[in-house]
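Reviewer 2 asked us to include a model.

Predict the structure of this chain.
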Amino acid sequence: MKTRVGYSSMQIAIHWATVILIVVQLFSGDAMEAAVRALAEGKAYDITFTRLHALTGVVVLVLAVLRLMLRALRGVPDVPRDGDPRLVKLAEWTHRALLALLILVPLSGLAAWGGGIAVAGDIHQVLVPLLFGLILLHAAAALYHQYVIKDNLLRRMMKPE
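Predicted model (structure tokens):
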């Protein structure tokens, strides 16, 4: 497979759509937690944000699978290797973990909400903060590359190859 300099327009679209959906997840997550508590107590809950959270979670899962398929078919740009080798490894593992969590978080949420599997809900509660932590690390690293190192790395996710 040839070395890529940037991402395709489809890869970029999936990336930014996922970002938007994760923001929706962040703001609708409390409604889902309230719904789980209300169900346990036999009370009514707001179905609008609960459905929104579940639906966007499914879409995040579908986009993550599409992202993996595109990655396998098209490839991705190499991580810049001109820095500290430990940071290069950290970047590689962060990307792997992000992709894994973009699959595992929605699956655990679906198993908990749709399948009524309580332990899946517990797993979901552990994985969500890990996902958000890695997202913050990923965003900080991209901004560091763009504005401190000034290597134009962020451009790869803005303009298709």
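Residues 9-157 form one domain. The mean pLDDT is 92. We have added this to the supplementary material.
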